[in-house]
Amino acid sequence: MKIKDVVEYLESIAPRSLQESYDNAGLIVGDKDLAVTGVLIALDTIEAVLDEAIEKGCNLVVAHHPIVFGGLKTFTGKNYVERVILKAIKNDIAIYAAHTNLDNVYRNGVNGKIAEKLGLTKTRILNPKKGLLKKLSVFVPVNATESIKNALFNAGAGSIGNYSECSFRTEGIGSFKANASSNPTVGEIGAQHEEKEHRLEVVFPAYLERAVVQSLIQAHPYEEVAYDIYALENVHQEIGSGLVGELEEPMETGAFLEMLKQNMKADGIRYTALCKKKIKRVALCGGAGSFLLRNAIGAQADIFITGDYKYHQFFDAENRIIIADIGHYESEQYTIELFYELLTQKFRNFAIHCTEVNTNPINYL
Fold first, then answer.
1. How does strand 192-205 pair with strand 94-97?
2. DSSP reduced 3-state for 94
3. Average pLDDT of the chain?
4. Is 132 exposed, middle or buried (0-12, 13-18, 19+ CB in 10 A)?
5. 194-249 tens-digit pLDDT
6. Contact predicate 61/43, CB 8 Å
7. Would the pLDDT of 56 be above 90?
8. How far is CA 162 from CA 127, 237, 309, in A?
9. Backbone phi, psi, residue 181, to 5°
10. What's the gap between Cα 226 and its chain centre?
11. For residues 312 and 293, what is the distance between their CA atoms, to the nearest angstrom?
């Protein structure tokens, strides 16, 4: 099993195209064609984590936060980022990061893991993204409709929210005239031919366009395939920032905050005025999520849980919602558990370890 196999699997769950513009997810250091000797999972790739990887015989570190966000102009070891890169190269250790792309997916994503720890149900993306969906419209002979439809479904097309294998078709008559260089499936060269056809339509995520088109071409019986692809303005209900869900039963606000502190292993919670007597609907975002406050209020959440809130931003709650800042590390720590579950379900032929190093740079007295 090679490093690229691990990378391809993780990116089938959280494609790099879903990362934010400022991010740097992906394989940051290492040869993708090297065989994997072991994987070490961490939230951050710091020097102590690399030392642990060396000790445990792991040549791949899978982390949530990228060690490099911007371009490096020197590699002299003057800071921890350069020292980590130098040590990784020297010891043939690859570093891979799935960051905001893993934040932005609903299934097997960072926020879904937080919701699981808090016992939330009826979850959905808090701020779904636009511009990530496309529609394929293709003309197919009637007797090939089912096989082409299934090929498109297998490539990932046809999913809408909780429903899969979604399509629409209309029937009509297609016409064409094959020239002397053609090899027509039906009809004769030089003669106009009419064929009963279906216009088949399916929606698919934009990042799957290549796979969907390849599957279409392979499954279609015609030598030349007539199809159109449209960009959609619809929001993608399973891609976006944050999450909102509900508790099975409302909880007294004080009891909920105690549960939150315990379940998220937080040393402390900074929160605004307790303007809600009970908590039922919960909005959350792993990491720094203050930009989602209006979405949380719009979703009629009783509380918004995230990290990295600044002093003046707390005033924005305006007694319409409770803001609970549990800390950046605390909100994302279960990403390690998420990676472990995903990798151990897929790979059995190398050791997978969770780091024993606490990479949280913040301490509490």
1. unpaired
2. strand
3. 97
4. buried
5. 999 999 999 999 999 999 999 999 999 999 999 999 999 999 999 999 999 999 99
6. no
7. yes
8. 17, 10, 33
9. -90, 0
10. 32
11. 13
Q: Which residue from 301, 285, 291, 140 is spatially nearest to 221, judged by alpha carbons? A: 140
φ, ψ (nearest 5 deg) of residue 105: -95, 145
Q: Provide φ and ψ at 231, rounded to 5°.
A: -80, 135
- Among 3.40.50.300, 3.40.1390.30, 3.20.20.100, 3.40.50.720, name the CATH number for the domain at 3-103+334-354: 3.40.1390.30
CA 36, CA 41: separation in Å to the nearest integer? 14
pLDDT-derived band at 277, boundaries 50, 70, 90: very high
Partners of residue 124 on adjacent β-strands:
244
pLDDT at 161: 85
Tokens of 139: 């003309």
Q: Which CATH number describes the domain made up of 110-127+241-326?
A: 3.40.1390.30
> What is the CATH topology of the domain spanning 132-232?
Alpha-Beta Plaits (3.30.70)
The type of residue at 350 is F
Structure-block tokens of residue 49: 């984590």
Place of tokens 């909100």: 331
Tokens of 345: 């379900």
Mean pLDDT of 257-266: 98
6-28: pLDDT as tens digits: 999 999 999 999 999 999 999 99
Residue 262 tokens read as 């315990």
Q: Does position 336 have pLDDT exceeding 90, yes or no?
A: yes
